[in-house]
Amino acid sequence: MPADPLHILIAALVCWLNFVTIDLLFKLPERGGVSGAEEIGRHIEKAGGALHGGYMMGNIVSSPDASAGTLLASCGVYAAGIPGGLMAALLVYIGNRICHDPGYAGTIGCISATFIVYGFTLIGFSAADFIVGMVIAILTIQGISHVYASRLLSTLWGWREG
Amino acid sequence: MNGTELALSVCGIIALYATIRVMLEKDTMKKLPFLNVISFAISGSIVLLVPHPLAIVAAAAYFVGSTLESNAIASTYSGGPRNE
């Protein structure tokens, strides 16, 4: 299949929406799930960011959340179709328990992403677009500006809280 | 260049960029999100390079292991576990 940068950009947007929506639904910005996640949130706040966005970024670092679920679901669908995505969900579930995370954001995010990615492969996208799309999506949150990313996540968290 | 090669190149460039950010960042706690980006890029690259069902296990094992390390580093810096 020829390379199509537009497909990668659309996939990045879909991945971003999937993981941010599920993380917000599972209240990741509310507090740090483990003490390390809280510490990361506080350091980001000290540098000028927003505390709740920082907590969510700390939680993403400290345990496989919906972003990791989306990445591994894309990897699963790329290598083995829907069964691969569901196997990835099981691995994310085990990963959550290993990392002392009591939540299900990662597992649910992985299952939803499996069906989303499979659906897009039916209309001409490749699962590889979603693997790199998720890497780009996480780059926008964790890898460019912690201050602005945490403020954006805090704003979205404000909407979620109503 | 086909789709997989393009995806792999973008993952590689992002991993390299995040590595430079890790090296330039002074605050250890703020290095960890950049390290997280590297883990994403490498896990993705593992499956793009080896499209085999067992590669999913390899990518997940690498990712969870790297996450657990970040978790341990951050928890140690925060003074150790309190609730968990």
> What is the multimeric organization of the chains shown?
heterodimer
| Helical coverage of chain B, percent range | over 70%
SSE-based structural type of chain B: mainly alpha
Our Rg estimate of chain A from Cα atoms comes to: 15 Å
Which structural class is indicated by helix and strand composition of chain A? mainly alpha
What is the mean predicted local confidence, pLDDT of chain A? 92
Helix run count of chain B:
3
Number of domains of chain A: 1
Unreliable parts of chain A: none
Overall pLDDT confidence of chain B:
91
Total strand segments of chain A? 0
SSE layout and pairing:
The complex is a heterodimer of chains A (162) and B (84).
Chain A: H1 5-25, H2 35-46, H3 51-62, H4 66-98, H5 105-122, H6 127-142, H7 146-161
Helix pairs in contact in A: 1-4, 1-5, 1-6, 2-3, 3-7, 4-5, 4-6
Chain B: H1 3-24, H2 28-49, H3 53-77
Helix pairs in contact in B: 1-2, 2-3
Structure overview:
The complex is a heterodimer of chains A (162) and B (84). Chain A has 162 residues and is an all-alpha fold. Chain A has one domain. Chain A has seven helices and no strands. Chain A has helices spanning 5-25, 35-46, 51-62, 66-98, 105-122, 127-142, 146-161. Chain A is globular and about 45 Å long. Chain B has 84 residues and is mainly α. Chain B has one domain (3-77). Helix content of chain B is 82%, strand content 0%. Chain B contains three helices and no strands. Chain B is flat and about 45 Å long. Chain B starts with a helix and ends in a 7-residue tail after the last helix. The mean pLDDT of chain B is 91. The chains are: A mainly alpha (162), B mainly alpha (84). The interface between A and B is large, with 58 and 58 residues.
